Amino acid sequence: MLRTRSRPPTTRLRPRTVVVALLVLLAAMVFAVVAGSGELGWQRVLGELAAQVTGGTSPLSEREAAIVWELRAPRVLLAGLVGAALAGAGAAFQGVFRNPLADPYLLGAAAGAGMAATIVVVFVPAVTGWLIGPLPLAAFAGALGGVGLSWLLGRSAGGSGTATLLLAGVAVTAFLTAIQTFVQQLNTDTIKQVYTWTLGGLNVTGWRDLWLALPYVAVAAVVLCGCARLLDVLTLGDAEAASLGIRPGRVRLVLLAAASLATAAAVAVSGLIGFVGIVVPHIVRLLAGASYRVVLPLSLIGGAVFLVLADFVARTALPGELPLGVVTAFAGAPFFAMVLRTSRGRTP
Description:
Layout: H1 15-34, H2 42-54, H3 62-97, H4 109-123, H5 134-156, H6 162-186, H7 191-198, H8 208-226, H9 228-234, H10 238-243, H11 248-270, H12 276-288, H13 292-316, H14 324-343
């Protein structure tokens, strides 16, 4: 029986689509800044934004303006950055592993970050005056370390496919989680702090965390978008891609490295926030097509929109702030179940 060879998606990203997506992102960010909790009033905050753009007189006092520019604005921008990083990484992981349920934490990034953060909380005393605190540094290094261990284990196992790497990620995740649990039991007084961090959140003051994560996410985003066409070609299969002069193993390694870098940067400043990397890429596919030349850039923008709005809900839904990871789980868990159901017949 003759086998018909599948073709890669040919959809190209239209400039109009990008413009619309960016306008939606801008609207979401302005809304989140203007309509935040507090007694400033959305009209006055909007007047402050307009005054900054036009050079006019602000209706806010100096203290009120500080609330907007040192609390709300950096938090909203950081939410957008973290959402873009997680959604873009999730889309890349789904393409590399050809699995619609893959997420940025698949290769041990979450377990490595959680273990490193727990060690810092338990053993490192609180410090002040550091340019970068020990907790985000440890989470960043732990996330990259977890992915690195998975890659080394997969290589040492002798397998060259994604299935071997996936199994290595499962083993590393289990091992690092066991270490985290053991460390937690050494000082049970810190369990609440560790638990709060693992639920995710953006309790930031000032712009430091944004500048900390921005370079890594920017580099990762450029690499992911630059490799989108190659990821489309990989959907044909490794043999076909190799016949076109592409080295599938190298392409996957570059994509996984970039996605892991973005994930590590996001985890370092926000803790563990789930479902963004699953929900957003699937919404993009449903609305704009399956080509990764479309999915990857629009996932970056869509992830920013998603997390900006989720963070707005987290800080305004109740008198006390909700953990951001709880809000994304409420939104993402039903969607995850839907994806699982629809992909059941297609996944081997």
